[in-house]
Write a structure and sequence with these properties.
heterodimer, A: mainly alpha, globular, B: Growth Hormone, Chain: A, 2 domains, seven-stranded mixed sheet, four-stranded antiparallel sheet, 12 helices, disordered N terminus
Chain lengths: 405, 357
């Protein structure tokens, strides 16, 4: 009896979605001219930066490369960094697109300039082009083996890819090159992913208590706070909430931290907090997904509106061939649209690129929902080889238990 | 150190990408020689400064003041070719339109090119500014229509050549045959309806002629019914959700199996063939819709697809009927064989119903 209303809701959503998608594909009508003073668009911070840093014409790109005076080169690099920084804060992909265009047009590839290489690696990382990013960092490290930025980014990338041995090597190389809290955070998170989350948490917490009062750099503190929050989440420790809030206090505009805090709030059963954290972030899919889940019991009508909006975005992203959204798309398909088979395909595509606990959790849930014990067994085998545990990883399904587990 | 701190901000791999992307929409109807390029106001602001008073808001007047600049940019970055020759485009006054809740400026154009084939689009709007920009193309010609996505790495698109009506007919005919032959549910439904023919063939006084007439009646009713709903659905007169249709088709298989099991109900097969034939027609229409989202040459496509389905159906009947005829005595000897077959069909239908629900 329980499934009947649900089936009706999903069926109705499907019909509405089909109608909406069909409507979008049609030629929309031309509108009558509005009044001259009618506002047709309000510029966001991203719009303003994009326009300010756009080349005046197509020929301008080549100027930098031809003249290449250091200060002009620095100015372009600063522009690209600004685009990337705002992309981190707003999630606006157009900023990445413009950064990529400028970088490709203005600077040779490959380059001997470490600054350009690091920026290119960072942009590739943001675009989830992990292999080219790693290749770029390795080029820097060949010339400057102790470049702390390259080592830190390499450790981060290898961690995301699930290559913990390489991440550990990079973290160890950071010792003595960066503040101990930074190298300690790097090493701790790698240890946590390889079977030692409790030990990693205790070590990093102690290091934080000992060193944080003397650290003035908020970025170093923020990195440690997020690392502690993630390890606490992995352990299912209630202190995760405090670490996420501390991190959010020090970097309130960082979306990664906001999403982490909102996810933590959802899992500890505080939907109102999720709604507060996602307020005003209508364009950020990951936050909107969490918002829709939080609204389900609080305001089902509002949850339905968010669900429809996200369903259309998934469709558009798939038509676009957008791979940046694979995790979000998979989660939306699984948790909101009840399409486990499609969700699993995207979760697998995502997992082939990145293997953070959230990616693995999503893959396991999608495999279980889709009844694909083979995928579940394979994923759990990968986890077992690395002794990785997480408080939110689901119990093995009965099919997987009957299999090789 | 400052730069180092900046990079430190970026070590977490961001999974927080928003749906804010740079997308345009390009429509081209080669049959009428018309087209339209819709660009987001936000994207146009990256090309030409639209916020003249720098108040963070773009007003319609500010857009109009830059109309000629924008049109000039668009003209330089979009080319339409036919038969390897550039088409002269006659641009009309831009107007506002909406995609979702966002205002776009539509640049309508006309072309004098009248070629039925060899159409190509060359598009490089914004690619120098945004390597992730995409153009969603929706094209239509006299026979067909379709969608494409253009990007920096794939900025040219050649429209498929569907000008030859005979090629189009053949293509859809083959699709119709193929769909019937790989559509196990349709085949099983037909077989279930034909199973009682074997019983009829061994009955005292039965003739092959009467069995053939019986089969012909069932197949004709099934054909009439599914042709009717296929046409109604393909022409968008009546449309039903695909999931519902798929479930009903699966149920029809079980229903036909049950009727085959009960000799007293065999006379209902004609009613069943017509009733569920209507449902199967919607199923065929869903396949046809997937093959061609927009059917300008609907009569040819529809007729060819339907004829293909009939040909496939005739092939199945042509294979099943002789087998039932030649094997009728064997089937009579093994009395469990016909009910066993019918029960298997019922089970298959129920399994599909469960899977499709």
């Amino acid at each position: 009896m329980k499934t009947k209303p649900l089936s009706i809701i999903f069926f109705s959503s499907g019909v509405l979605l089909s109608v909406a998608i069909t409507a979008r594909a049609e030629l929309p009508p031309l509108l009558p001219d509005p009044a001259p003073s009618h506002v047709v668009y309000r510029l966001s911070a991203a719009d303003k930066l994009l326009a300010a840093l756009a080349p005046a014409d197509a020929g301008e790109h080549s100027k930098v490369q031809k003249r290449a005076p250091n200060d002009e080169q620095d100015a372009v690099l600063t522009s690209i960094r600004s685009l990337l920084q705002l992309a981190r804060e707003t999630g606006d992909q157009r900023l990445l697109g413009q950064a990529l265009s400028r970088l490709d047009a203005d600077f040779p590839n490959p380059t001997a300039n470490a600054d350009i290489s690091l920026l290119r690696a960072d942009l590739y990382q943001a675009l989830h082009r992990f292999q080219p990013a790693i290749a770029e960092l390795q080029r820097v490290l060949q010339r400057q083996p102790e470049n702390p930025q390259a080592l830190l980014m390499l450790a981060s990338l290898q961690l995301v890819r699930g290559d913990y041995e390489s991440a550990q090597i990079a973290c160890k190389q950071l010792l003595g090159l960066v503040p101990p809290l930074l190298s300690g955070s790097c090493g701790s998170i790698v240890l946590a992913r390889q079977g030692g989350p409790q030990k990693a948490y205790e070590l990093l917490e102690r290091l934080y208590e000992q060193t944080s009062p003397s650290i003035s750099d908020s970025n170093v503190l923020h990195y440690a706070q997020v690392s502690l929050a993630e390890i606490a989440d992995q352990l299912g420790n209630t202190s995760a909430r405090d670490w996420w809030y501390l991190a959010l206090q020090s970097q309130p505009r960082d979306l990664y931290t906001r999403i982490g805090a909102a996810r933590n709030a959802l899992y500890r059963g505080d939907p109102n907090e999720v709604i507060r954290l996602s307020e005003g972030f209508d364009d950020v899919d990951a936050l909107q997904l969490l918002r829709a889940q939080a609204l389900q019991n609080v305001d089902p009508a509002a949850a339905g509106a968010v669900r429809e909006k996200l369903a259309l975005r998934v469709q558009l992203a798939r038509e676009r061939g957008d791979t940046l959204h694979a995790r979000d798309q998979a989660a939306i398909l699984l948790d909101l649209l009840q399409q486990p088979a499609d969700a699993l395909a995207l979760a697998q595509q995502n997992w082939s690129l990145q293997r953070e606990p959230e990616d693995t959790l999503l893959l396991l849930r999608a495999a279980i929902a889709a009844g694909r014990a083979d995928v579940e067994v394979e994923t759990r085998r990968w986890l077992a080889q690395r002794h990785q545990s997480h408080a939110r990883y689901p119990q093995p399904s009965s099919d997987a238990r009957e299999g090789t587990l | 150190m400052k730069r180092f701190c900046f990079l430190l901000l970026l070590v977490f791999t961001c999974n927080a990408w928003a749906h804010q992307t740079s997308d345009s929409f390009l429509y081209l109807d080669t049959a009428n020689g018309t087209g339209r390029l819709d660009l987001a106001i936000a994207d146009l602001h990256r090309i030409v400064t639209l916020d003249a008073d720098n108040d963070g808001q773009i007003r319609w007047q500010e857009v109009q003041e830059q109309g000629s600049h924008m049109q000039s940019y668009v003209q330089q970055h979009l080319q339409v070719d036919a038969e390897a020759e550039p088409c002269s485009l006659e641009w009309q006054t831009p107007a506002l339109t909406l995609h979702g809740a966002r205002h776009h400026l539509a640049f309508p154009f006309k072309t004098q090119c009248v070629s039925q084939s060899g159409w190509q689009l060359r598009y490089d709007v914004l690619f120098d500014r945004d390597a992730l920009h995409r153009a969603f193309v929706r094209w239509q010609n006299a026979n067909d229509g379709g969608l494409a996505v253009l990007s920096k790495d794939s900025s040219t698109y050649t429209l498929p050549d569907t000008s030859n009506a005979w090629d189009l007919f053949q293509d859809y005919f083959h699709q119709g045959v193929a769909h019937l032959l790989i559509g196990y549910d349709h085949i099983l439904f037909l077989i279930a309806l034909l199973l009682p023919v074997a019983t009829r063939l061994v009955a005292p006084g039965a003739t092959l002629r009467s069995a053939l007439i019986d089969t012909l009646g069932i197949v004709t009713l099934f054909t009439l019914a599914h042709s009717l709903t296929l046409a109604l659905s393909a022409l968008a007169v009546v449309q039903l959700p695909a999931t519902l249709i798929e479930v009903l088709i699966a149920l029809s298989v079980s229903g036909a199996g049950v009727v085959a099991l009960v000799p007293a109900w065999h006379s209902y097969r004609h009613l069943l063939a017509f009733g569920f034939g209507l449902v199967h027609g919607f199923g065929f229409a869903n396949v046809l819709a997937e093959l061609a989202p927009s059917l300008t040459h609907q009569v040819i496509s529809l007729a060819a697809f339907n004829l293909g389905v009939e040909a496939g159906q005739a092939l199945v009947v042509g294979m099943v009927l002789p087998l039932l005829y030649w094997g009728r005595h064997t089937l009579q000897r093994f009395s469990w064989s016909l009910p066993g077959g019918a029960w298997s069909i019922v089970a298959c239908g129920l399994l599909w119903t469960w899977q499709r629900w």
